[in-house]
UniProtKB/TrEMBL annotation, chain A:
Pfam families: Pyr_redox_3 (PF13738). The lineage of its organism: Bacteria, Bacillati, Actinomycetota, Actinomycetes, Micromonosporales. PANTHER family: FLAVIN-BINDING MONOOXYGENASE-LIKE PROTEIN (AFU_ORTHOLOGUE AFUA_4G09220), FLAVIN-CONTAINING MONOOXYGENASE. This is FAD-dependent oxidoreductase. One of its GO terms (molecular function) is monooxygenase activity. Keywords: Oxidoreductase. The keyword Oxidoreductase applies. Gene3D superfamilies: FAD/NAD(P)-binding domain. InterPro entries: Auxin_biosynth/cation_transpt, FAD/NAD-bd_sf.
TrEMBL record, chain B:
It comes from the Bacteria. This is Osmotically inducible protein C. Pfam families: OsmC (PF02566).
Amino acid sequence: MVVIGAGHAGLAASHFLTERSIDHVVLERGEVANSWRRERWESLRLLTPNWQSRLPGLPYAGADPDGYMTAGEVVELVDRFAAVSRAPVRTGTNVTSVSGVDGGYHVTTSRGEIRCRAVVIASGACNQPAVPRISEAVPASVEQVTPLEYQSPAKLADGGVLVVGASATGVQLASEIRASGRPVTLSVGEHVRLPRTYRGRDILWWMDASGVWDQRYDEVDDLTRARRLPSPQLVGTPERGTLDLNALAAAGVELVGRWAAVRDGRALFSGGLRNVFSLADLKMERLLATFDEWARAHGHDGSPERFAPTRVPASTRLQLDLGSGEIRTVVWATGFRPDYRWLDVPVVDPKGQLRHDGGAVESPGLYALGLPVLRRRKSTFIHGIEDDARDVIAHLAGYLAVRR
Amino acid sequence: MTTVDNGVNVQALLDARKVLAGAPEAAQFTWRASSKWQNGVHSTTTVEKFFGLGQEQAHKSEAVFDADHPEVFAAEDNGITPIEYLLVGLAACLTAGVASVAQNRGIQLRSVESTVEGQHDIRGILGVDSDVRNGFNDIKVTFKIDADASPQDIEALVAQSQKRSAVFDALTNPTNVTVEVA
């Protein structure tokens, strides 16, 4: 048995494999929690409060349950998990190919070959930045940065910054770059608006308590859409402040529509900004109403809170001259995609996503963990891995038993 | 269970969505219009055939549209102005979207009315001021909807109809346009 990736997902798989005494090895291209060490910007903190940052057999035991871990603290957490669960990790072992062979899989790595009966792919959902083609039309005088390269505002050129995308990444980077004094324009497409706290509790407490986060992948109305949903507009700060578009606008960030095209050196933005605001406001209201209903049914005190609609700017710019020097840097917060170039099994769809049913990949004996809404809405969050890994490894164990 | 009937065959649309997910080439449509100059700024445009689902298609009958300028533009007003056709397209598209989404969400509509206003500074087309654009500066659509649904669900209907509207997209996002002489 081979597990690819020693992040929290691969290690959780290992935990349940060990529990079932299934012989396995965890292959890791770098070190344990590699992407948390190397592919995160300096200020990044988890979106989830500490008390939720638990892994199988490892509840949060620190002094600040309502705080949010830094990337460094996540590395410590995942390191500790690897140690506690005695995961058989082979670091510095890059998987270069996985192909199907009779009765299992052939895994080629930078340090040798392995034959195995089953493989768990836990290499992450965010291996590569998903940068749209319009980036090719951006003039060379404008620097382009992806979140995997971005470190801090200080490393950017002085001058204006166009942040593209209003997910957690986009709003966080827009906020800290604006705070550095640079003029920031944020190009906003469809997004997920959430307040940091609701009725006195962390919004993610509500997601957890009300059962929204436990909603299974086979109960979700439009699974394709749920799996493509941008991350919510949240930031984990000691102040537990809300970082929605109103907060950004108040901080002086200019909001423009979705970046649609570059024509004659000009960025052209959609005029449909008002509707993406409405969609996000309506969806947030619906979610909060779900929480209110749950609170009523469970006898929780307090009353519903409602938030001001996203303010539509008096006029939004529809175009911006990229050659004028106004914008020195474009930050592509346009999402990520997994990298399966090493996977020589025909299970990747034309959009580059694994074809799987709740983590059981289309090819027997091949499994996945740590992908968006893999088995539940919480699948990609740290605490979401436990239930998913338990289920997936149970399926895998059943597969091995039948095939024995 | 009461049956919601807004006259939209949502099942056919959902089936098409499923089939076309695996056959993107069949989803490629070409819409066509042919125009003929009459006199002055009056023209007639006919629409009949289009291409889609891999073959030539046609409407049940040919439709003819007159376009002209109003008398305040010193024209004969044989038809609406071309830019007003954009408003016709937008209103029709959003209304169709409201009906379809309502059907899909099990919302019975009793009436859907809308008004569309496009703000237009004609100094652009007259060449009075080159800083003024030729097209609309702003378009506002106001819906009045009577349906078996909460105000919030009605808001959501209208938002979703914009999200899936071809004309809303065509007006709010840039499109490459090639005009040539054959």
